[in-house]
Amino acid sequence: MSDNIQTGIQNRIDGMHQRVQGLRDADMYFYNMPVSELKGSSEVVVSGRTMLMLASYGYLGLLGHPRINKAAGDALEKYGSGTHGVRVLAGTLDIHVELEKTIADFKNTEDAVTFSSGYVTNLAAISTIVGRRDIVLCDKYNHASIVDGCLLSGAELKRFRHNDMDHLEGLLKRYSDRTTKLVIVDAVFSMDGDIIDLPALVELCRKYDAWLMMDEAHSVGVLGKTGRGIEEHFGMQDCVDVKMGTLSKTIPSIGGYIAGNSGLVNLLKHAARGYVFSAAIPPAQAAAAKAAFEVIIDEPDRIEKVQQNARIFIDGLQAIGFDTMSSETAIVPVLCGTDEKAYELVRLCQSQDIFVLPVVSPAVPEGLSRLRATVTAGHSKAQIEHALSVLEIAGKEAGLI
Length: 401
Known about the structure:
Elements: H1 2-25, E1 35-39, E2 43-46, E3 49-53, H2 66-79, H3 87-90, H4 94-106, E4 111-115, H5 118-129, E5 135-139, H6 144-153, E6 156-160, H7 165-174, E7 181-186, H8 198-207, E8 211-215, H9 230-233, E9 242-246, E10 256-260, H10 262-271, H11 273-276, H12 283-298, H13 301-320, E11 331-337, H14 339-351, E12 354-355, E13 358-359, E14 369-374, H15 381-397
Parallel strand pairs: 3-12, 5-6, 5-7, 7-8, 8-9
Antiparallel strand pairs: 1-2, 2-3, 4-10, 9-10, 11-14, 13-14
Helix pairs in contact: 2-12, 4-12, 5-6, 5-10, 7-8, 13-15
């Protein structure tokens, strides 16, 4: 048995090594590239070359914002570089409390709780909220952290077709006798850039007495007139029971949060293992996150700019002849089909100093490999037009358009 187990582990190690080495040998490996410098919010320096950044999650261009940097520096000076450990046993800093109040106000909830990463936030929250006798209904394209949280919880997991409210209703009908039902979806889907049908979703959850959890990792700062996310986008308020978000995308820090009623937050602060047994967010990062929410409120032009840039980019790609699938946000898939075509298109773009990366199977279904391009409020119209011109030439050379 031991030899078989060791062989299985070694096979996985060897298999990944062969796949990565094969890509390296073909000059098609683009992951984990060291960035040596950030030049503003739209350019990076890689291997001595300045490249236009089209792979950033910093949708509002807040990375390096002077006000956010100052808040982080002041906190570093006041508290030091870390904490004494977990918040429950080693003490919560006042900056953590201030950050959570800022988040609750921003998301129009009674309270909020922060975690050390966005992934841990979903893992910890879901596995605390539901258990073995419950059922969770998930969109097929939900983020991996949601799926892993469901599996860890022990609840029965059922997945409905992407953004298919008829399929979801069929499942809700089938399991209507369950006492606890939780529906979990992404607000903006991280690989496709499309938006969940919130009005229909809320109607179904209310009809079948199900709780609704929303992952807003890619919608805060992107959707809504003031960037508050999907509820504002649809002109709805207080219709989501569990509001999850990250502090490492639009918010240029690290961590994640759950916002909701005070009872929910109290439960998570005392029973969520990812909170009770994980060290607190470092104070400088907590202060940076708090300041970033304040900047979003004070600089609303950034939200309008990212929405305009997304429209320019999507329309431009479609005019060239690329398939951008159903994206309507700053996440713009450039469909390539095969893994090989995606790698080739990235190679051609990077050779012209466009920093963009491929997403291939199994991260997306076979046949749907793509460039996962993003635009931010930090991009100028001229930069987007330059990127489009490079993509057009590269797309033709790769035989995609």
